[in-house]
Amino acid sequence: MEHRWSVRQPQQCPVVVDTARAGTVAAKLRDIGIGGMFVETDDDGLVLNTTVNVAFSLGGEDERENFRLPAIVVRHMSHGAGIMFLDIEIETLRLLRRALYTATTSALDRAPLSAFPVADKPGISLPRAANG
C-alpha cells in the first residue's frame, strides 16, 4: 500500500544522514518529495524506525536552499533507505516546496495545451482557455 502524500521527483545530490547509532552516514539522493526521500547508500547504519537528521541542498545554481530536517527511516534495503520527514516547520515546508516544484510548475504553465499529447485522446479532457 502506498503511504506517500506527495509526488517524488528524481534528484541527485549528496545527503548527510546523522544517526545516534551509526554517527554520520554519507548517502546520495535518488528521489524526494514534500514528505520524504529515498537515499542510496551501502552503509548499514540506517536502521528501520530510527530517527535521524538529514542534510542536503536543493535548487538551481542561483537559488540553492540548504535543508536539515528531522526524519525517520521507514524502509531499509540493501542499496538504500526510504526516509520520511518529521515535524517540518511551515517556513521550511514552503522553502522545500519552492525548491522542488517552482521550476517545473512555471515551465508547465507556459506550455500550450498542444504540448500535451493526452489532450487529443478520447475520454480525457483538459481545461481550455476562455475565448475573450
Automatic annotation (TrEMBL):
Gene Ontology molecular function, alphabetical: cyclic-di-GMP binding
Record Gene3D superfamilies: predicted glycosyltransferase like domains
InterPro entries: PilZ_domain (IPR009875)
Ranges of residues in domain PilZ: 7-101
Name listed for the protein in its UniProt record: PilZ domain-containing protein
